[in-house]
Amino acid sequence: MSERRSGILIVVGTLIVGFLLSQFPLPDSLAWWRPEWVAMIVIYWVMALPHRFGIGMAWLAGLALDVLKGSLLGMNALALTIVAFITLILHKRLRMFPIWQQAMMVLVLVGINQLVFRWIQSFSGESGQGLVILLPAVMSALIWPWVFVVLRGIRRALHVS
Fold it and tell me: Of 19, 29, 130, 156, which is most buried, counting CB atoms within 10 Å of its CB?
């Protein structure tokens, strides 16, 4: 198997793990504390491999997430595309930031993801829940250092470039 194909399989494999983690059952009281796994994985791969994982791959991941969650087709796709676009613009800076500054940027990027998703949801007639929609962004920022270290370890150990 070619090196390029194996790299794509590893990226897709990490996205599948993100899809599974996003569907892991939680009690209703903890549902808003679920990190945005797929958004964090998209942010990492756009930041680490901007020439291989870009806006198109983020859009495909968002469509897959829409199908998986049963949401209006294109909601997650648009939100992840916007996040990937911003990450692509800032990827050189993000790579230079210390991990705590990256976590703050993940807070902003996942917050944008949440706001776009809820904004589109409001057009379909669903009511908003207030600022509680930003709790997944806070949780994503808190666990970003571990997600970053794990994904970087996978990328380096399996020589994905």
Answer: 19
Measured over the CA atoms of residue 23, residue 32, residue 18 and residue 110, the dihedral's sign is positive
Instruction: Please answer whether residues 88 and 46 qualify as being in contact, where contact means their C-beta atoms are separated by less than 8 angstroms.
Output: yes
106-117 tens-digit pLDDT: 999 999 999 998
DSSP letters spanning the chain: --HHHHHHHHHHHHHHHHHHHHHS---GGGGGG---HHHHHHHHHHHH-TTTS-HHHHHHHHHHHHHHHTPPTTHHHHHHHHHHHHHHHHHHHHHHS-HHHHHHHHHHHHHHHHHHHHHHHHHTTPPP-GGGGGHHHHHHHHHHHHHHHHHHHHHHHTT--
| Architecture of the domain made up of 3-157 | Orthogonal Bundle (1.10)
Q: pLDDT band for position 1 (50/70/90)?
A: low
Domain boundaries, the chain: 3-157
Residue 46 has pLDDT above 70, yes or no: yes
Work out the pLDDT band at 30, boundaries 50, 70, 90: confident
